[in-house]
Sequence to fold (591 residues):
Amino acid sequence: MDRNNMHEINQLFLSVFDNANILKGAKLTSDIPYSVRNTICASLPEKLSLFLKDSTCKYSLKGSVGAGRATKTPWIAVLDEAITKTTREGVYIVFLFSSDYKHVYITLNQGTTVPGQFGLRLGKKEVIRNSEKVRKIINSNNQLLSSDGNADIADDRYKAGAIYYTLWNVNDDEAGHKLLNLYLDIYKKYKELILNTTDNNTPIQTGVIEEEMKNNIPTNLFSIKSVISLIRETGLVYSDNLIKRFAFSLMSKRFLILSGLAGSGKTQLALAFASALVKNREKQMCVVSVGADWTNREPLLGFPNALQPEKYVKPESGVLDLLIEANRKENADKPFFLILDEMNMSYVERYFADFLSAMESREKISLWNSNTDSDKEIDGVPQRIDLPKNLFIIGTINVDETTYMFSPKVLDRANVIEFKISSKEMGEFLQEMREIDHDNIIGKAAGMGADFVAKACKKDLAQDGEAVEMLQKFFDELKNVNAEFGYRSATEIFRFICQAKAHDDTDKKMTDEEILDAAIVQKLLPKLHGSRKKLEPVLAQLWKLCFTGAGKDLNIAKENVEKAQYKESADKIRRMYESATANGFTSFAEA
Fold:
């Protein structure tokens, strides 16, 4: 049986080789014929799994041709779940196609993405050092195992990460069987040695060890004061009020958009905050770079296998796994974070429509259809899935000629926090530059996670007469340009006010004016965009609403912002007004 299965595996590899020219020219995964995608992502993992079914190890197999954009190196990975559940970290076996797509290598490889730190990858020197350490641990002299770094693999990450590699012979089924067993043996040897080691410099932290280290974290009340202190210890520089607005916005609405200058720390704040509150980053956090070619929901939710009804192709991004994990009953009190970096690289409504709808309808997202029992799963994927109350979605956006504007539909469902850097802040940063210690914050506020979720689930609304009066005035002015807010936005503003007043435990609390100011600039101003003719009059009126008494007569100018009652709103209105005057058009989002 094994020989027959190996022959089928080799025939599947050959069928991929027959499409080498198509794979070489493919820019998007949609350019690759479905039969080829299905072979790599479903058929090969399924056939390889037959060699592992009697093993005492718990293996998972995954294949990929890319996520939206076609990868330079298609792969099929064999992961021992005691070591890693993702190709982003840990050690695993992976079949890698050659640069001409006419050969395939079997390799013992390593993840090169730093977990939880989006966009950061291990440097080549560090990857090489890790490979050397693993080879010393395994200590094999088998002649079949190459380690010279000369494999013909197009993706530099996989090429550099190959601890061992061997060219697979598709014309010799018996040799293939022996070679697969050889790699499985050295993989098992690695696990046995790594789980027993006490060397803190070992390159891989296994999920099992990480979980055991964090099992007994005590439960504490959420403290924004403690979170601010932890973020400062990493070396990241943010004002206290910005961190407060970030936290209280998530607690009032579990969808937050961070806008502003590239390199101003949007993604880093999201990563630091989430890393502090989770016990297990691999299970509770997912960081995804949105692709310019995302035209549907598949990069986030995957898709059912049309040719094999009992199979579901999960997305490489890990988003679906995060949703499934967050929906487990035992995880109901744990926070889960989905961070979408550069969210407006593609039209949000194309790939995120199911999420936007589920946020308000509270209906489950349909993943696949069946006439059978609704509780049935395929490949561990349910027919429908909730956006659970413990899931927090954070999107970052940059504005330039390569990105797209957000529609009012999207902005209305989120708080929008703008990141900007003042001259004073840049001066302080330049004088006290220091390396950022990203790992310093990991799990340090995990004990607060359950209370953070509990507070976010509360629907208390603030009773605030000043806010009622001011919001009515803003509504009347915004209505003049058809940019008024609805009941949902009004409700979320009062939830934000309530969270900010109830849970600010710092020595210098946000004042009532600062809280309302933040609410206005986060929920009311983001939807404003249009021509100078349309917006100039309303911006002038909104400017006046930011002042009291004689201040209402002050000119719209930078030097007058500090005299405003609502300074953040006044400054944003001033910048939008100046943009409309200079360019004939303005919007909340700035390049």
